[in-house]
Amino acid sequence: MWGFFSSKVCRILRYTSVKLLLHLSDFIGYYFMFKTIMSKPTTNNITIKGATTIAILVALTGCQTLPSAEMKKPTSTVDSNPLTAAMPAIDRQGHIAYVEEQGSGSAKVSTLYSIRPDGSDRQLIDQITGYIYAPAWSADGQLLAYSKQAPREHPKIYIYDKSSKTRNLVVNAEGSNMSASFSPDGQYLLYSSTVGGNADIYKMRLSDGKTEQLTTLPSTEVQPSYAADGKSFVYTSDKVRAGRPRIYRYHFATGKAVPVPTNGYVASPQLSVDGQRMAYLNGRKAAVMTLATGQVVSLAETGLDEPARLSPSGNYAVYPTRFSKVSGQVGGQSLGRQKGGDLVIHSLLGNTSYAINSQNGGVVRSPIWGR
């Protein structure tokens, strides 16, 4: 999602789309921002003057055990909810990570949860007074990468280990470090950063922190997402026209990127495991495209400018919404009547949907479905 920096407000990408809207008269450049939602103020305004600033620093730190917290656990509906019961085991037994926000401004509290697709087993992963952005699972579902921003600090990337319930700080470069994506073998991490001035895409080897810059254009390159074969990744760029993002596929073998055929304003791509579908933000709608035919299924205008995200099988999609208008619900609250939002799970095969309520009535953001 694309936003702009003014003298008083800057917005940050969270693993959705990015907007580039402001042209300053006293120099040529742009203020970039990253966010996965609307109205995401950040405490560190990052000025990109003519496409320069900052140098990279990557710090790997030790593990920190997370605090435990009691969650409200809705009764499992795996047998009674037709959509859940019909899911293949790889989806039904997986976990959906998402962010729930409460409060605003300096009082904003962001909480990272995981939950089963039937609405059960909700677990708190992390919480901060500030912002949490763009969680992303590893291919085996054991690790979760996400960006976290405390007041007056830049966004940093952490990795949470589901087995040990610990987190590691892995990217602490000066700038906005966002939209992490694990390689299929779990050895590398793609992410975007403004450490060099522009928003570019970097590749880090997790074993030793060695980092390589993959994009070097004066435009904005963000939101990388690995293909399941590890040979390429998709990402968002405005290199053709500033402020008009398109989706590209970067091939590691050639170091070249080619556009993915789409129409209009598009951002925040994610490929299915079999490579046949791509979930993304299409205009202001969560959408899924069948790549072979170009057929697009527009799921909903979420009210949050958030993309859809695919299940491990690729046959289901999840997206957040402020007020869901679907026929089923999980969590014991009436749909469309709460102040926060829901997770909506949609079958791409049967065109049916149901919703999972937020934990505490907060605004729901950035869901991602892992094994």
Architecture overview:
The chain has a single domain, classed as TolB, C-terminal domain (Neuraminidase), CATH 2.120.10.30. The two termini are 26 Å apart. With 371 residues, it is mainly beta. It has helices at residues 82-85, 89-92, and strands at residues 2-3, 19-20, 30-31, 47-48, 64-65, 95-102, 109-115, 123-129, 131-137, 143-149, 156-161, 166-171, 177-182, 188-193, 200-205, 211-213, 221-226, 232-237, 246-251, 256-259, 266-271, 277-282, 285-290, 295-301, 309-310, 316-321, 328-330, 342-347, 353-357, 363-370. The protein is 2% helix and 42% strand. It has a 5-stranded antiparallel sheet with strand order 5-12-11-10-9, with no helix packed on it. A 5-stranded mixed sheet has the order 25-26-28-29-27, with no helix packed on it. The chain has a 4-stranded antiparallel sheet with strand order 8-7-6-30, with no helix packed on it. Residues 1-75 and 331-338 have low confidence and may be disordered.
Any idea of the CATH class? Mainly Beta
* Strand proportion: 35-45%
Gyration radius from CA atoms, angstroms: 19 Å
CA distance, first residue to last residue = 26 Å
Discrete helix count = 2
